[in-house]
Amino acid sequence: MTAKQGLPLLSAAALVVLVLLFTRRTPRQDSNRGGVDGGVRYVIVAGSADAAPPRRSRDVQTRGRKLFEKAGIRVRLALSLEKDMRQGYNPRVSLDERALRSLVGLLDDEDPRSLDLVRSRILETGSLILPYLEDARRDCAPTLSLRLDEMTEEVLFQDLRRDFLAMAAERVPDLEKGCFLLSRFGHPKADQAPYKAWLDRVAATAANEIPEDAGAGESAKRLAAHLFQSLGFSGNESNYYDPDNSYLSRVIETRRGIPVSLSALYLLLAKRLHLPVYGVGTPGHFLLGYRENGEPHFLDSFKKGKALDLSEVRRMLVRNGYEFRPEYLRPCAPREILARMMRNLLSIYQKAGAEARAERLSSLVEIVMTARSPQEEA
């Protein structure tokens, strides 16, 4: 078939895009209703579910044009018919892949209504479309590159919000899961698996340094010595308000953090070692606590695990401008620890004028505290 003979099939190829824009069927369901006409794949997007595929490519073209006009969208194909004719039909390139590439290609549209529809459909597609966004970014104009980056960020945040909702719905959220979800907010493309493996290795090494008959106090101090002395973790006094101090993955990399993030790191190791250590949400400065012989004892993770007694904690609170209250010393639940980490970070972004990041992080804080998305309450 010549290129001239194939021209009427252009809209048939364009229907690939319409499958994504105007239907909610899964790719598997759509493939059952598709076919090949003159060497170009098409999918039915109009008519009843039992409608038979059109017998002529001109019918496909007519249906496609009507749908385009009805939606008010100027569709541009990423894969033109001319290219099809030149390279030939490749059965290994699935309809779904070509559809995704074409959908990403529509992000160069300048019509706001069209662009909103494309963005909406990309978000519905989810993380499946991320590789195609990345591919498109490699060779495009700067203005389109910015749009592709924004779209990628939206897709990643949508997935992150979904994972936060699942975590927050648990009666007692998992602290480790929550910490790494927060790390994804700051570094969405970073692989979290190596950091979890690092925690396992450090806990195994620390276990060898804790005698089997050690009490709670000695065990807690031995772990603190390993983490803060042997491995060199400490408070980031020179750059306290760096957002990376709140992201566990970066805390592990830089070995610097703030009181609550360093305490969270300690607690994740203590959990692996079955040590009875808990977080203490004293205002202004988060601490670690444990009980021995019925008495409370404390560790300051920001000061390399420095041991504190009750009188020293009282003085610390006074120095920070707080009146001592017994409830300050109660164990913090994982949900409270996560919320505190996130609120600290939120304050940093707000003071830095990063309004978009602050707004998104605020919505995640609300999810952690209520186990509901703010959009559900609107």
Question: Can you put this structure into words, describing what you see?
Answer:
- The protein has 378 residues and is of the alpha+beta class.
- It folds into two domains: 116 residues, no CATH class; 207 residues, C8orf32 fold, CATH 3.10.620.
- 57% of the residues lie in helices and 8% in strands.
- It is built from 18 helices and nine strands.
- The strands form three sheets. Strands 8-7-6-5-9 form a five-stranded antiparallel sheet.
- α9 packs antiparallel against α10.
- It starts with a helix and ends with a helix.
- The N terminus is likely disordered.
Please specify the SSE layout and strand pairing.
Blueprint: H1 3-6, H2 10-22, H3 27-31, E1 34-37, E2 40-43, H4 57-71, H5 81-87, H6 95-105, H7 112-125, H8 130-137, H9 142-168, H10 175-186, H11 193-207, H12 216-230, E3 234-235, H13 248-254, E4 256-257, H14 259-272, E5 278-280, E6 287-292, E7 295-300, E8 306-308, H15 310-319, E9 331-332, H16 334-351, H17 355-370, H18 374-377
Parallel strand pairs: 3-4
Antiparallel strand pairs: 1-2, 5-6, 5-9, 6-7, 7-8
Helix pairs in contact: 2-4, 2-6, 8-9, 9-10, 9-17, 10-16, 11-14, 16-17
- The assigned CATH architecture of the largest domain is Roll
The spatial strand order of the largest sheet comes to 8-7-6-5-9
Low-confidence stretches: 1-56, 62-95
Please name the CATH topology of the largest domain.
Answer: C8orf32 fold
Mean pLDDT: 81
Indicate the overall shape. elongated
- State the major sheet: 5 strands, antiparallel
Q: Helix proportion of residues, in percent? A: 55-70%
Gyration radius, to the nearest Å?
A: 28 Å
N→C terminal distance: 56 Å
User: If helices are DSSP runs of H or I spanning 4 or more residues, what is the number of helices?
Assistant: 18
The tally of beta strands, per DSSP, is 9
Order of helices and strands: HHHEEHHHHHHHHHEHEHEEEEHEHHH
Which structural class should the secondary elements be placed in? alpha+beta
Count of structural domains: 2
CATH class wording of the largest domain = Alpha Beta
Strand composition percent = 5-15%
